[in-house]
Specification:
- The structure is a single chain.
- Helices cover 32% and strands 26% of the residues.
- By secondary structure, the chain is of the alpha+beta class.
- The chain has a single domain (3-439), classed as 3-Layer(bba) Sandwich (FAD/NAD(P)-binding domain), CATH 3.50.50.60.
- Strands 1, 2, 8, 9, 10, 11, 21 and 22 form an eight-stranded mixed β-sheet that branches.
Length: 443
């Protein structure tokens, strides 16, 4: 088998995580030879595809499941994406300014939202409280048929919506515009990664082999499988969670409308989003349910699924702990029913009515071909479900597992990985240039 030249870094996976690292290495380091492998024919065919996510730039302002400390970290990370979009001229092509809000329904939620506003307005000075009179002016559908009082915490003028596939494509274009030796290997699936005696790595694909001094794996659910095949990350398992969406038959809202998170539930509460792929028509979702797949709408090797699930006594304890709670049990049952033909709309519309009370099942339709997988990581040692990004770092190789808000944090994750690679290779990361172009918004 032919073995090709030695690259400084090999990136496995062409989603927004992989392409953001490609861009960061090409523009802000003195590494010259970089190769990226993508097993499909273009970037961002899976979770970074706009059909697979809510197209939300998660900043932490309206996500009420974020603590103050998490919101602070997410804000810093996601503002890098916002700054990139504006500083590099991708506004209204990759990222879009749309109104957004989190809606509190009923006196209890209103009290919680007011308390959150008081705590978070220092972190997000642009946040405003919108009463019913204001909401009736900007989003009258929220009041139509409403019996309970409502209050919203919202923002205008912010980049709220991102087409993460176009973001990935822009990263590739910006990287290729540098003078670096960059190879994009589309339709080439990595089958094995091995560490050589001299500390370099051999990356075997379905056609040939390549050598690299360092490797970063950004391959979604498969990142953990690659790690475990090399003997790393044995204390982790994967819980594959699928999500689906519903479209309204006509445009009903102009703003992103999130709802208050139930603290007992680990997954996002229902929200409504103007969809960039459907002329800003309203899309509701997501549902969240365990699905025996690693990639939505793509074929699956059963062995990969079994390996990813890693079911043993420790994993079973996590499942049992989740099912013990009646709130979580009810949530799981309801989400399973929402996927069923005929009755799915009838069940889902009851959740969506928290946003638009007058909504009827006949007003929505299942979003065929939309939805994705969010591989959640199970910590088998501490018997807990890890929400958010997870990372395994070894000598010269990194494995990233990035459920939401991984796409929003992609440039921050890329910066950290690039700095680690430079340290390992004795290369230089241009902190000043990165600070000016990515961490700061130009006037």
């Amino acid at each position: 088998m032919l073995v090709n030249k030695l690259f400084d870094t090999a990136i496995v996976g062409g989603g927004v995580a992989g392409t953001s690292l490609l861009f960061t290495l090409a523009r802000y380091t003195d590494l010259n030879d970089i190769i990226l492998f993508e097993k499909y024919d273009e970037v961002s065919q899976l979770n970074s595809n706009p059909k697979a996510n809510s197209q939300t730039l998660h900043v932490g302002d309206i996500e009420t499941n974020y603590t103050y400390e998490k919101a602070k970290k997410v804000k810093k990370a996601s503002f890098m994406v916002s700054n990139y979009i504006q500083n590099f001229g991708w506004l209204d092509m990759v990222g879009f300014r749309r109104d957004k809000m989190v809606l509190a329904v009923g006196e209890e939620e209103i009290a919680q939202l007011k308390k959150r506003y008081d705590a978070f307005k220092v972190l997000y000075p642009y946040l405003e409280l919108w009463d019913e009179e204001k909401l009736r002016q900007i989003e009258p559908k929220l009041l139509e048929g409403r019996r309970e009082p409502i209050l919203a915490m919202g923002a205008t003028g912010q980049i709220t919506t991102v087409d993460f596939k176009k973001l990935s494509e822009s990263f590739v274009q910006e990287a290729l515009d540098t003078q670096k030796n960059i190879q994009m290997r589309y339709n080439e699936e990595v089958t094995k990664i091995e560490r050589n005696e001299d500390g370099t790595y051999t990356i075997t694909t379905d056609t040939t082999s390549f050598q690299a001094k360092t490797v970063v794996v950004n391959a979604g659910a498969y990142s953990l499988l690659f790690a475990q095949a090399m003997g790393y990350g044995k204390s982790y398992a994967t819980l594959p969670i699928g999500g689906s969406f519903f479209f309204t038959k006509e445009k009903l809202l102009n703003a992103k409308v999130y709802t208050m998170q139930n603290p007992k539930l680990p997954f996002a509460a229902v929200h409504a989003d103007p969809d960039v792929t459907q002329e800003w028509n309203t899309r509701f979702g997501p549902t969240a349910f365990a699905l025996p797949k690693l990639e939505r709408y793509h074929s699956l090797h059963i062995k990969d699924l079994i390996d990813a699930l890693g079911i043993d006594m420790d994993v079973t304890k996590v499942y049992m702990s989740l099912l013990k709670d009646s709130t979580i049990r009810g949530y799981i049952l309801r989400n399973v029913m929402e996927e069923m033909p005929l009755i799915g709309k009838e069940v889902f519309v009851k959740d969506a009515q928290k946003v638009i009370p007058s909504l009827k099942a006949s007003d929505i339709e299942f979003a065929e071909g939309y939805g994705g997988m969010r591989p959640q990581i199970i910590d088998k040692i501490n018997h807990e479900l890890l929400l958010g990004e997870a990372k395994i770092e070894e000598e010269g190789i990194t494995f990233n597992m990035t459920p939401s808000p991984g796409a929003s944090s992609s440039l921050n994750i890329a910066m950290q990985d690039a700095q680690a690679l430079c340290k390992h290779l004795g290369a230089t990361f241009d902190e000043a240039k990165h600070q000016e172009e990515i961490e700061s918004l130009k006037a």
